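W.,

You were right to be curious about this one. When I first looked at the sequence I had no strong expectations either way, so I just let the prediction run and decided to look at it fresh. Below is the sequence, 523 residues in total, followed by the output.
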Amino acid sequence: MSSRVSSSDLPRQGFVAIAVVMASILTAFDIRAASIGLPDLRGAFGLTVDEGSWLATFATAPQILVAPSVGWLIAAFGVKRVMIGPALLYSAISFTIPLCGGFELLVALHALRAALLGLFVGATLMTAFRNLDRRFWIFALAFYVLRIPFAQNLGLYTAGSYSQTIGWQWLYWQGAIVAPVIGVLFWFGGKPVDVDRKLLGSADWGGMAIFGSALTTLYLALDQGNRLDWFRSGLILSLLAAAAFQAIVFVWHESRVEEPWAHVSILFSRNIALGFAAIGCFMTASLGSSLLEPNFLVAVAHLRPEQIGDFSAPYAMLLLAAATGTAVVLVQTVKQRTTLMIGFICFALSAWLGTGLTNLWSLPEFKLIVVLQTFGEEIVFLAAVATLFSNVNPSRAIALTAYVQVMRLICSETVATTMATFVRQREQLHSYLIGLHVTGTTPGWSSLLLQLGAGSASGGSQAEAIKRGLGNLAGIVQREANVQAYIDGFWITFLAAIVGLVVVSLMAPSPAHPLTASMTSRG
């Protein structure tokens, strides 16, 4: 592809760039907003806790069924054929869901909507690489990475504010408005291409189907594992066994088919394997801002989602812009390895600050952590993906894109559910350990209970005051147990950042690539 862009080609590439950014952000934002707004959605649809949990699972899991194969579909059919129709269908479904009732219908519509979302974000990288000039690849990738902190903040804010202001229905209707715009942009921006008959004739349909099914089954197990207590649940064991069996069949199939779609041998390259390992460390280290901070502020500080997001603050947009610009400059100047190290150092510092958590912390105390996490997310993920694509043979880029989608959904879900389980179990342990020191044999026990009970209400007998005091004391023990559990969680993210630095130190220098070339060197 030429490094020069004709004046007549600039508008088309601009349409594609905007569409790619909107599609990737819409996907991340919808998932985040639906997750945070689940309690409101359960109330609106009249669902039980179990039904709400399964609805959230089916609103995400089908993404992974189609996302890994989207790069191949675009290569075979072109971005217009793959994206425009689904964008319009997504809009129609998003408009319809708030008007529906019945658990089964809601699950079916959410599952179909999730599959369409999988097309959106799965198409981002391949669409950018096939339709944009090389000098713009790094910016498309930067906005692809930007969706993560953007969705974390804006999703938190809107999930709470919609329910309090214009209505929970806008969690869906906003997508119904944005999706057709994405379709129109792809219509005007996408290159007109013929169907690649040769690629279609050698299609590895079996590999794509088995791979997507295995990952979807695994995602179902991961998403429900914490709620159903993992290996104590027959359903979780069955899902994990089914996913493992399908994974074995996929590897066997790819070793026998004449033209494998995504052979696992692509992972055998040193820098590619280490690049994926770095992304795994990144996803664990980034849990400080995506999971630990918001959950702490809800459980201990008792804030609502819109208070946590606080996306209306001007500094939030400036922070995202500064982090994105810094990431691009670092990748183009000091290259990937040094950039990755800088990002993981940001993560390590933010996690170390988080280990100083107390029950008095609220939004102000997390500001520096959020700043470091935002820079870390932008810097590490951008450099890691640039490492992957600069070390892969261009003929195998489609296969690499498939595994990037695996990391995006399966790895992120794995580390998130593992951390949620870890924090829950640590809270139980700390609650037990603290409780050992708060018993009837503790000196001043009765006077302590009377003091706690008298502070919560006036009047009543001594027995009633002691009863109130026991309730207040139980709340204090649970609060402190939560604080200790979240401190343990921040130590895990700190260790992940340190492991990330070790992984980066093992990488070899990456070859020259358009993603890492500066604007001046492109001429």
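Here's what jumped out at me. Confidence is low (pLDDT under 50) at residues 1-8. And, maybe more interesting for your project: The chain has three domains: 9-203, 205-260, 264-413+489-523.

Coffee later to discuss?

I.
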